[in-house]
Each structure stands twice: as structure tokens, then as C-alpha cells.
């Protein structure tokens, strides 16, 4: 009987250690809450994948699904996007995509400068 108690104890301890090891590896594959911001390099509508190049030069490959929340203009190359994602099954799965047209921001800044210049040139001076 002494042998079977030891065998049961070793089995229970082994299962406990395996569950701890499995829990640690499961946590490593499901990382939440990462964010990347950059320029959209390419978009594959069929495969639901896209590439984003950050200002540091690093390109991140991402995928989206039906649960991904998208705000802003349609995702296309040349736009600026901020993406929140998580790593699942060795893929960067986007949970939210916020796009902003790079061109629109430049036009907006340019038109504001033009308006200020025009306003300054139309200032009249009074003679006394």
C-alpha cells in the first residue's frame, strides 16, 4: 500500500505541475492590448490582412475579422492608421482600426495657412 500512495501522490503532483506549465504557455500566446501607429503599406481584402509601417521603420503584419471595430475612411495604402491588436495563434489580430487620410490632414493645414495669409493681406489701414 505504501507504493500506491506514493504513485498517487506523484501523479497528482505531475498533473499540478503540468497545469501550471500549460497555463504559462497559454498566457504567452494570447497577449492583449498592443498598439501600433503608422502608414498602411498594403491591404488584402480577400485575406483580410494588411501591413502597417511605423515611424521607426518596423512593419507589422495584421489581420482583421468581423469583430474588429473600424473607424474613419476605408483601409487603404497610404493612409495613417492606429491599430489596437492582440496576438492570437501567432497572428496579430486587430481589435480596432482607426484610419485617417494623410492627404486630408496636409490639405487642412495648407488651407488654414492660406486663410491666415489672405486675412492678413486684406487688413486695411486708416488714415487720420
Describe it:
The protein is of the alpha+beta class. The chain is 38% helix and 37% strand. The protein contains 2 helices and 6 strands. It has helices spanning 2-29, 102-121; strands spanning 31-44, 49-54, 59-63, 69-71, 80-88, 91-100. A 6-stranded mixed sheet has the order 3-2-1-5-6-4. The chain is rod-shaped and about 75 Å long. Mean pLDDT is 76; it is low at 104-126.
Give the CA-CA distance, first to last residue: 117 Å
Largest sheet: 6 strands, mixed
Instruction: Kindly provide the radius of gyration, computed on alpha-carbon positions and rounded to a whole number of angstroms.
Output: 28 Å
Estimated helix fraction: 25-40%
Low-confidence blocks of residues: 104-126
| % residues in beta strands | 35-45%
**SS content category:** alpha+beta
Order of helices and strands: HEEEEEEH
- Strand count: 6
Shape: rod-shaped
Strand line-up of the largest beta sheet: 3-2-1-5-6-4
Look at the structure and give the mean pLDDT: 76
Q: Determine the number of helices (DSSP H or I, runs of at least 4 residues).
A: 2
Amino acid at each position: 500500500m505504501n507504493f500506491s500512495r506514493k504513485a498517487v501522490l506523484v501523479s497528482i503532483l505531475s498533473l499540478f505541475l503540468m497545469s501550471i506549465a500549460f497555463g504559462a504557455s497559454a498566457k504567452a500566446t494570447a497577449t492583449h492590448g498592443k498598439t501600433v501607429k503608422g502608414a498602411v503599406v498594403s491591404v488584402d481584402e480577400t485575406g483580410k490582412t494588411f501591413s502597417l509601417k511605423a515611424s521607426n521603420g518596423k512593419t507589422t503584419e495584421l489581420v482583421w475579422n468581423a469583430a474588429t471595430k473600424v473607424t474613419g475612411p476605408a483601409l487603404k495604402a497610404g493612409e495613417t492608421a492606429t491599430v489596437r491588436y492582440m496576438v492570437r495563434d501567432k497572428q496579430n489580430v486587430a481589435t480596432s482600426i482607426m484610419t485617417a487620410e494623410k492627404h486630408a490632414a496636409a490639405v487642412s493645414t495648407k488651407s488654414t495657412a492660406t486663410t491666415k495669409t489672405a486675412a492678413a493681406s486684406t487688413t486695411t489701414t486708416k488714415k487720420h
